[in-house]
Every structure is written in C-alpha cells, then in structure tokens.
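Internal QA ticket QA-208
Title: Verify multi-chain structure generation after dependency bump
Assignee: T.L.

Test input:
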Amino acid sequence: MSYAGWILLTGALVGISCGLTGVLLILRKMAMMADAISHTVLLGIVAAYLVSSSLDGGSMLIGAMLAGLLTAWLVQWFESSGINTDAAIGVVFTTLFSIGVILISTSVGNVHLDVNHALMGEISFIPWNVIELPLIGPVPSATLLLLIVTIIVALVILLFFKEWKITTFDPALAASLGFPVLLMHYVFMTLVSVTTVAAFDAVGAIMVVAMLITPAASANLWTDRLSHMFLLSALFGVASSSMGYVVAIWLNTSISGSMAFSTGLIFLISYFFAPKHGQIAKRVYKTNEI
Amino acid sequence: MSVLTVQNLSSAYEKKLVLDSLTFSVNEGTLTGIVGPNGAGKSTMIKAILGLQPKISGSIEFFNGNEKKINQRVGYVPQRGAVDWDFPTNVLDVVTMGLYGQIGWLRFPNKKHRQLALEALEKVSMSDFAHRQISQLSGGQQQRVFLARALVQDADLYFMDEPFAGVDAKTEKTIISVLKELIDLGKTVMVVHHDLQTVPYYFDHVLLLNKELIAHGPTNETFTPSYLAQTYGGAIQWLGRDNNDRSFVQQ
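Actual output:
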C-alpha cells in the first residue's frame, strides 16, 4: 500500500476505535475521564518500557491497561471518601502524568519516547516502522496494533450491547437485576485505555481526546437510537481523520491537529444542522408548535 | 409467609449513620407504604436491601432464604430523576430492559421479549407511545414506562421509590390500579410515599421510618397520630379524625 494509504487507514482505525468508545464515554458522562486516562497512559507506557526495555505493542497495551485501571480505581477511591469527582480526576491524572513526564526525562530520555511525541503523536512516521507479517507482508506496527484494538473494542461493545445499554442508562436497575455494574465500569475503563494507547502513536494524548469525544457528541445530535449513534460516531471519526489528512497535506500543517480540527468542524455542522437535535431543527419545531 | 426479613440493618453515608439497626419482616401479598420525613433514609433503605448501597451491619433474607437467585424475583422502580431521559432509546426499548436479567449473557432481545414489553405497556395505557423517543415523555408518562418495565420483569417482590411524585391524575390512577392488580396476583409491594393524606387509602401496611424504624404493621395500627409525631419529630399537626377519613398537615 502507498504511504498515503497507510496513513489514511491508520487514521480511519483511530476514528472507528475512538468513535465507538466515545459513545459510551458521552452517555456515561465520563468525558473528563477520557482526558485523564489519555494522559495517565503515558505513565503506563514509560513503566512498561522500564520493565521490558522495549516499545512493542504488547507491553505498551499492558502498561496502558494498568495505568488506566489505576486511574479509574484512584478516582473511584477518592470519590468514595468524599472528594468531588472533578477534583478527584484532576488530582489523579495530573499526578500520574507528571510521574510519567519525570520518568521520561530522567530514565528513558534517549529512546524515541519524548513528551512532545506523547502529546501530539506523529502519524507521518507510522508507515516507516513496519513489521513483516506472514502472507500479508510488511505492515506498520502501529496500524496493526490499532487494527487489533479496533476489533477488540467492536467485539466487546457488540457482544455485550444490552449490558452496556442497561448499565449506562440505569445502573441502579442493572445492579438490582444482577448485572456486574462495577466490573463493567472497569472493563470500560480498560477499553478506553487500550484505545488511547493504540491511537497514541498516531494522534497523541491530547488529540485522542478530540477523537474520543467529538464524533460521539456529534452523533448524539443526529439520532435517537443507540446502535445508530455507534455507527454514526465511527463514521464521523473516519471522516474527520481522512478530512484532516487532506487538509494537512493541502496546508502543509500538523496531521493530528487537522484531524482534531475536523472533528470540531463536524460537531459545529451537527450542532446547527442535525435534523434531530440541531439548533435549527429545534427552532423550527418550536415555531411549528406555536 | 414472610418474603423479606431484615435484621439489624444499618447503613451510612460518609460515616454519617442514615439507617440505624432496622429489624422487620414483610408478609407475602402486602402493600406497604414507606413513610418518613426528607432524609429519613427511605430510598437508602430500599437500596441497602437491594444491595445497591453498602451496609455496615445486618442481614437481609428474601423468600425465607429459599431462593439463591433472587435477582429476577425482586423488582425495583428507581426514582424517575435517577436516569438521563435524553438517552438515545425509545419507550419499548426501556421496557424491554426489565427482561435483560432473564435474557442472559451474549443473547439479544427478540420478538417474544418485545411482545411481553408491549403487553406491559398496554397495562399502563402507554401502547401508543411504544416507539416514542423517551425524551419526549411527560413526567407521568416516564413513571408509567418505569412501571411497565417493572411489570414485564414479573417479580414477586417489588420496591418502588416515590412512583407518585409529581405525576398527573391519570398516571396516579394507573399506578393505583397496577398496584391493586399486583396484590391480587399475590405479589408483595413496598412503596416509598410522600403524601400523608393518601396513605390510608393506598396502603394496607405502613412502615414509618426516620433513621430508625418507628413502627411497622397494618395501616390502622401504625398510621396513628402518636407514631406520626414520633416519626416527624412532632412537626405535624393533627387536623381531624374519624374512623375512615384522616388527614394531616405536615409542617
């Protein structure tokens, strides 16, 4: 595949995995948690590197999962001891992130891990770092990792669709019916962590928040059906990443920046023109009622 | 026969005791109103019984401990305000959720489940709204949807948290007739209730709660001025009394 092809495919996978995860983030009102985890996975990655001395996909995923779970658990723990959710998230993620930053600049400063890369990602380097797969040939390792994570995310959401729906809409009822609400919370936090770390190389910790939140928030304005919201969100994610790449080439600017900007653009269009809950549709309904 | 036995149940929020060693048992086929002032721990008691709120001490036994899997047999109607009504789903879908516990892992609701949900909607006069987005419902309609969701579960013991709060007259009537029907079927229902005036008309049993259990038993024995004064800390005025008609003004 061509260089541009790999980048578009990588971007599309970021769009799908983040778009799907983002729907649950929005509906569970946990957008702030995405922000937190997108930063604390840095600590997970650094810790994984210190333990395994490599930056391969497997150890990064495990490190990120552990860091994400640690974040979720610490936030939960502070909350249950009476700290505000916002404050708990703010304290936990900045602390864990700063430990990651300190470790990077002292212990692992000479590898290709650096703070800038972690925050912004560098999708244009991805096609050069390939691994050889039997039958298929050379595949960028970041793209392969994203493909695996996207499949996992899609499967976990699809197989447990009704469980996600009930624990998100009415956790009290779900618990009374015997669904493991807390376990599902941690499974979900794990999904957010692996999605984030897989998208890390491509778009970085900050831009991944845009990919997680904005397409899902846009999709929420277009539909009243959960399944449609998942599909639309993934679609918006893919559209944003492709559009972002084209814009970046055209203006010769940052690819991840343009991708995040495109998600914002799609949100803005949805906010005004979405037929279900867009501002214009709302005005029209109101006028009709009067 | 007792369907629920609660012993020494205590619960706390951030180290503040909200339920103080409650002990009572509920007989099959009774309709109990749970009554007490704001912050008396009524919702907390339901949640603690259902295991949704951690308890400090105490034991809870359903159906004389004969049933291991009680989830399907115990139904719960949370407060209407506890969920986000902008959630992308429709009425039929919400009612079907009452069956999710019976459907089992890795299975999806099918035609049969949707049919059951439609029948439950029929009972609360909401069939016409089956495909309506839930954000477009009035408060009373939302309450009826929640009721239908509990009905479809076909439990034997129900807990309802303020189903009558802020609903229209039609919904109130529907809830009462559904409660009567449930009792006629031999089911047991416990309802958190705020409006003291209607208590003697709706419920055959009353549980008076203010952090601790004040009284529990048949309405004519427990819903008395002295117990009520004890429950509300004397902040209640007795207006008038005859054998059938009682009214109170809460101050």
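Spot checks passed. The mean pLDDT of chain A is 90.
Status: verified.
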